[in-house]
Amino acid sequence: MGTCAFDDVFPIHYDLTLLTNLGQHKFYGAVEIDLKVNADTSKIVLNVAELTLSDVSVTIVGREEAFVPVSQSIDSIDQRATFIYPCTFTSGSLLKLFIAFEGKLTRSLIGYYEGTWEEAGQEKTYTVTQFEPTAARRAFPCWDEPFYKATFAMSMISASDTVNLFNTPAISEEPYEKADDVLGLLTHATSGEWKITHFEISPLMSTYLVAYATGQFEYLESSFTSPISGKKRPIRVYARPGSIHQARYTLEVTARVIPVYEQLFDIEYPLPKLDTLIIQDMDAYAMENWGLITGRASHYLLDPNASNLQQKQAIVNIQFHEVAHMWFGNITTMEWWTYLYLNEGMGEIFPEWKLDSAFIALHINDAMLLDNKLSSHPVEVDCPDANNINQIFDALSYSKAASVLRMLANHVGVDAFLSGVSKYLKAHLYGNSVTNDLWKGVEGATGFDVSGFMDAYISKVVSPGFPVIRVTESEGVLHIAQARFLQKEITDDSNTIWHVPLNILTIDSDGKPCIDKVVMKERSSSYSVNTDQPFKLNAGSFGYYRVMYSPERFRRIAIEAAKLNSIFDAGDRLGLVQDAFALAAAQMMSLSNALELLTIFKDVRDYYVWSSISTALFNLSTVWWEHTEIIDLLNDLRRFLFKPIVSQIGYEYSADEDPDVSLLRTCAISNASHAKDEEVVHELRRRFEQYQETRDQNLIPEELQGPIYTSAVRFGGEEEYLAIQRIVDDPRTPTEQLAAIGAMCSVDDPKLVVSTIEYMTTKARDQDVPHFVLELMKNPKIKREYVEHFKKNYDGVSNRSGIIEYYYAAAAYNILLQRLFSPLTTKKDFEETKAFFEDGKDTSKYALTVLQSLDAIKENMVYIENSTDDLISWLQNWKRSQ
What we know:
Keywords: Aminopeptidase, Hydrolase, Metal-binding, Metalloprotease, Protease, Zinc. With about 900 residues, the protein is α+β, with helices and mostly antiparallel strands.
């Protein structure tokens, strides 16, 4: 939080006027800020970055005299401007600070920036904001920290043929001429007609939630009726004219979710409207600006004629998350970025209440893969330097936070948990909060010691990580011990003891399943269980921990779980697969025992189980990617597992089929084609060839665009590659473009490899670069070549399109580095990567990512060293048995 002179005054209200000149690629503005003086001072300090300031003055409310600073300075490192005045402002007095400013509209994807789209062969430019976490200061002078909440009034001046959007509804709009221009902003305008749009004053909010945009947008409109007050409010989705028809599903989802959250939290949505603006150029997938959500087209648009279930799920998940922020983060805001998870973890948990299998597949594994490293960090993480906040927008702040909150909700009961959440929100309406505030709310509703239960999973004063529960058996007794989950060779002296909800699932005397929700609070303990009957810890996989049984017990649980009427559900099957392969990677059990589970589950037809099996096999292929014999055997196993599913359910999708069947079909075809199954590859290539001849879109369902395009390129030639490149250049939908990018990156031909890298470097949109890198690093023919290309062109890659500051400031660079270096596997890779980043580079803004990437390389090295012989032996024996 701010210190010293930064805290001497506190902003109460901002009155912003902004002129956007798209032709000049500049913006000009003026802001009058109402301030309350907290301590006697002659100094005003606030945040500014990349702005030119002028006409700075301050008046004391009730007096006419305006004071100008006797000196002013801007610290470009701390991004603060300091104004020193010739008088002392006394504590308790009220001030009005006036500042005129101007800035450049760049393609940086942060602050107030510009983007483009093509319409009828013409390039159209629009502008939009992305302020989280600390980029409002790039758009207007402000106190740019979440604690400094204020109200905002906005007047936007723009070309008359544009649409202006802000957090609140417009209250008037009229032509703007020189006679109206008391601020002199039109002196910066080019010729043409201009207009001014005035907006309603916002509620109290943090600067990172302020949002505005200008462009030739179109919209779809609906409404929702509050179940609390009966008020009807409008909902709109804006997009470019050529894609607005693909935004209908987002509109429908938004209208459905707001009333649900109102009922869950017993708090009415407080703004007069909710807009969603879907744009092409965005670093994040979406941003929860209050009243004006912004989202990337690839995650928000859906062909209305397609039945793409995966994209529908993606839209539901992301919009549920963003709308949840209207309460978590917007009404009640974390005091400082240390408590980021209070926004993001709560936002992640609620979309999945009714989709436990989806939650386990999407969140728990991702969180634990990062949390099982010594370079992990607590969920509640100290972040004193605002410039480095982007490093903590990771799977721990999102997925781990959501996972442990889900664990808490399951333990105390979902209804009681939600009652506690409502108490928490109501106690901090329009205010700020810390961890203990949430615990107090849930404790008040449940009487449960939430702090004692949760601290080891969340607190910044406790070591990071999570427990592994070791289970051994004697007659009628389970002996259970906990320790931090780390690779076998790594030691940890933290001595953390977690409160672990064991959720022991057994069969009672009547033959019915029952769950003992006992909480283990000791290093080790024993529990009486009939070990002759099926049992399992962590029933439903609600707990944030791994469970290690003996190999025989793992096998017996898997056999029971694979039965049609098993007492174990899909969450149990998912957790079993994830635990087994995580334990194998950490050398706590043999990889061969983990692989045995896959053959036991071969007749199960549950999509999320197969999704986890797919992930497990993909992860093995990414570790042993340079071992040709192992890759060939893994492909044999993939074909054995997934081809029968393709044969059973075929290639055709139906709008009325079971969603699980639809998702399973896509998973099975993708895996079979990746494993080079001849029949599947032939069918996919046939469809692509016929599509090229007939343009019959029914040949390529949206769900199969990825495997069809990839098969066309992998097993085709330059002609197919160029056809896919044309799709990247001019896709029907954003999801089709992503599928085509993946295909471009799957090439084997060295000449086409160079073409793909050159395309990414010179033609791809900035936010698509991390996706290119992800796909390139899946291709064993390209991995090392691209890593070397990156290192040799480090300055050029970082400074791509002149946006070095964007890459260093945004989370995108952390993602890019992680995707680039984590798949490496040798001691030489480790030493060269370490030396590369130690060679005079300023890694302060991504130091944590470097440590995590180095840890990942070491994990791969140890995995290969300890498990290669076991893996080859099992695969060879399995193949001989077929």
